[in-house]
Amino acid sequence: MYTRYRPTPDALFATLSDGAVVLDIQTKKYFSLNETGARIWALVREGLDTDAIISVLLDEYDVTRAAAEEAVTSLVQSLAAEKLIEPY
User: Fold this and answer.
1) Which residues lie across from 21 on neighbouring strands?
2) Hey, how many other C-beta atoms are within 10 angstroms of the C-beta on 49?
3) Is the pLDDT higher at 2 or at 36?
4) Residue 32 pLDDT more than 70?
5) CA angle 72, 13, 85 (to 5 degrees)
6) Which of 26, 30, 34, 68 lies most in the core, judged by the most C-beta atoms within 10 Å?
């Protein structure tokens, strides 16, 4: 299983005051991300693998490992299913 992802060329990202949005320029669909989701996206863009992203969330937020793992896994799976990120 891949644990490192990168945004696809069709995904455009913009930050907002309370999170971010990702626009798929092919389908014209956009996806809202809360603050944590926006942080996960930024870490994906930096090239961190999912284990490293979980570690960052544990350092930056008051969450349990299980909650961090669930947040990362859920968002990565959703973004990959929508072809906004791809494994490499």
Assistant:
1) 14, 32
2) 14
3) 36
4) yes
5) 50
6) 68
Token readout for 40 is: 């996960």
13, two tokens: 């990202």
- The structure's pTM equals 0.93
Share above pLDDT 90 across residues of the chain, in percent, rounded to a whole number:
94
- By the 10 Å C-beta count (0-12 exposed, 13-18 middle, 19+ buried), 79 is classed as buried
Sheet holding 19-24, edge to edge: 11-16, 19-24, 30-33
Long-range contacts of 35-44 (CB under 8 A, 24+ apart): 36/61, 36/71, 37/71, 37/75, 40/71, 40/72, 40/75, 40/76, 41/7, 41/13, 41/75, 41/79, 44/5, 44/6, 44/7, 44/76, 44/79, 44/85
Structural tokens at position 73: 């896994």
